[in-house]
Design brief:
This protein is α/β, with parallel strands linked by helices. It has 3 domains: 2-46 and 129-239 and 356-414, FAD/NAD(P)-binding domain (3-Layer(bba) Sandwich); 247-350, Succinate dehydrogenase/fumarate reductase flavoprotein, catalytic domain (Flavocytochrome C3, Chain A, domain 1), CATH 3.90.700; 432-508, Methane Monooxygenase Hydroxylase, Chain G, domain 1 (Up-down Bundle). Helix content is 35%, strand content 16%. It is built from 13 helices and 16 strands. It has helices at residues 14-24, 62-72, 79-98, 131-145, 223-230, 263-266, 292-305, 320-326, 328-336, 392-411, 432-452, 459-482, 487-508; strands spanning 2-10, 31-35, 51-52, 124-125, 149-153, 156-161, 181-186, 191-202, 235-236, 241-248, 270-272, 311-314, 346-355, 358-360, 372-374, 379-380. A hairpin with a 4-residue loop joins β7 and β8. The termini are far apart.
């Protein structure tokens, strides 16, 4: 089956839905959002802490936010990208509120601002400790009310369509690669449909599920990054995987591990060993409010030194009622496993959390492939550099959705549907034995990445990961050619591609920088 849309959006988090709402205002054609589960399950909904923007100009300003972002990014952020996000943030916050998103306010009616690690001022807007859920709710309601936006839930993008599918040889040196849409799997009938588009937006989120333990949901398999890489698009900075320092240590839950928000340390939480001893003073003068990469490495080191399976976060010195009010979901979750955070330490460990790299885009959100944009965690704008500043991700997504919408609206009339695209060849069958192999390989990818490509790396570990991933790649590609495409095998292909990209780009960076820390090239102290 062939479907045609002027704007095809793959992914339905804050990036995809805000872009859809922005282009829908222009009334320039049909809009489709393809979502591989339901709208509710996007990674956006997992964001607890909040969204960063300068709103209180009596104490804060753009330059402070810009400087905090560049410092956290280890000095390699793209200054133009940082300025674009920071200076456009207040207007995008205003639009989120207009779409129905509620942020907490104080008694005066002003935003109730939090402060998080790496921020010099209180500038984090939030909704209790489930900000992502509230943003997702507001955007979902607005999208579902809009008559010009068609949502395809539980549909899976298999590949983007380029000249390659027309029989042309496409390499990384091919000029003017073009995206004509995507092949989309309909799980109701197992068929792969052809979605032709004038403009395609990739907004598929992150890659955390390639690790054995992650704060991301199972759907965060790096699909958009892998599809664009296979289509010979430019992918950059994949070595910069952010490990959140504090997810709840609960061996029964690994995907997703329950996040203990950065805001809890901003609130006054203190990192301790289970014995009660503080340790952050050994690593950074900012103590528990140091940037995430420093805190994650400190925790990783303390766990190795003391042979621990976790450290602890302590808020027992804070007012119990205030703690419950600020962090109701964390309080309830911990209580459900027998931990009263007003009286007990919270057991925490680092966990794969955010991908700072991804599909390389320019200041308009354009990828290296014509007619293809990328926004949100799957993109690499240059904002984050070597390490993302807390709560900068959500604001990056809406600012870049805005610039991508403006640019794509200005050029969409120049494009036509490519009627020569062939339909997908869906021959093949899948046996139960093959399903078992796929399930085992998925586990193996997580083990390889967590063991060899984690918080602290070495060339030996990275080469070992490369060799094992290469074997998995050959086996999986051979299987993919013989069987009918399913969501499971497509996700496995994508995870292997993403794991390879993280590993290869980590090997290529011969220095410790930002989130990439290698014992072969330790960072020189100034």
């Amino acid at each position: 089956m062939i479907k045609k849309f002027d704007f095809l959006i793959i992914g339905a988090g804050i990036a995809g839905m805000s872009y859809a709402l922005k282009v829908a205002r222009a009334k320039k054609g049909k809009i489709a959002i393809v979502c591989k589960t339901t709208l509710e399950e996007a990674n956006t909904a997992k964001a607890q802490g909040g969204i960063a923007a300068v709103t209180d100009f009596s104490v804060d300003n753009f330059e402070k936010h810009i400087q905090d972002t560049i410092v956290a990014g280890d000095g390699i952020s793209d200054r133009e990208a940082v300025e674009q996000v920071v200076r456009n943030a207040p207007a995008q916050i205003k639009e989120l509120v207009e779409w129905g998103v509620n942020f907490d306010r104080n008694a005066n009616g002003d935003f109730d601002l939090h402060r998080e690690g790496g921020h010099s001022e209180f500038r984090i807007l939030h909704h209790a400790d489930d900000t992502g859920v509230e943003i997702q709710r507001g955007l979902m309601d607005a999208v579902r009310r809009h008559p010009d936006i068609e949502v395809f839930e539980n549909h899976f993008a298999v590949e983007i369509i380029t000249q390659h599918h027309l029989g042309q040889r496409v390499t990384r040196r091919t000029p003017d690669i073009e995206c004509f849409g995507a092949y989309i799997l309909n799980p109701e009938n197992g068929k792969i449909d052809t979605y032709l588009s004038k403009v395609t937006l990739m907004a598929t989120g992150g890659t955390g599920a390639v690790y054995a333990t992650t704060s991301n949901p199972d759907i965060a398999t790096g699909d958009g990054i892998a599809m664009v890489y296979r289509a010979k698009g430019t992918v950059k900075d994949m070595e910069f995987v952010q490990f959140h320092p504090t997810v709840l240590y609960n061996p029964a839950e690994t995907h997703p591990a329950f996040l203990i928000t950065e805001a809890m340390r901003g609130y006054g939480g203190i990192l301790r060993l289970p014995s009660g001893e503080e340790f952050m003073q050994k690593y950074d003068e900012r103590l528990s409010l140091a940037p995430r990469d420093i805190v994650a490495r400190a925790i990783d080191n303390e766990m190795k030194i003391h042979a621990l399976d976790h450290v602890c976060l302590d808020v027992t010195h804070k007012d119990p009622e205030e703690t419950k009010q600020h962090f109701p979901n964390i309080y309830a979750k911990c209580l459900s496993i027998g931990i009263d955070i007003t009286k007990d330490y919270i057991p925490v460990v680092p966990s794969a959390h955010y991908m700072c790299g991804g599909i390389k885009v320019d200041l308009d959100g354009q990828s290296s492939i014509r007619r293809l944009y990328a926004v949100g965690e799957c993109s690499c704008t240059g904002l984050h550099g070597g390490n993302r500043l807390a709560s900068n991700s959500l604001i990056e997504a809406v600012v870049y959705a805005d610039v991508a919408a403006k640019h794509s609206l200005s050029v969409v009339d120049n494009y036509k549907f490519n009627e020569k695209v062939p339909e997908w060849n869906d021959e093949g069958t899948m046996t139960n034995e093959e399903k078992i192999l796929i399930a085992q390989d998925l586990k193996e990818v997580g083990q390889i990445m967590s063991t060899y490509v984690g918080i602290v790396r070495s060339d030996l570990r990275l080469r070992r990961a490369w060799e094992r991933l290469d074997l998995l790649y050959e086996e999986t590609e051979d299987l993919f050619k013989r069987v009918k495409a399913t969501k499971d095998i497509c996700e496995l292909r994508n995870m292997i591609n993403v794991g390879y990209l993280i590993t290869r780009q980590a090997l290529e960076r011969k220095e410790s920088c930002g989130l990439h820390y290698t014992i072969d090239y330790p960072k020189k102290t100034k």
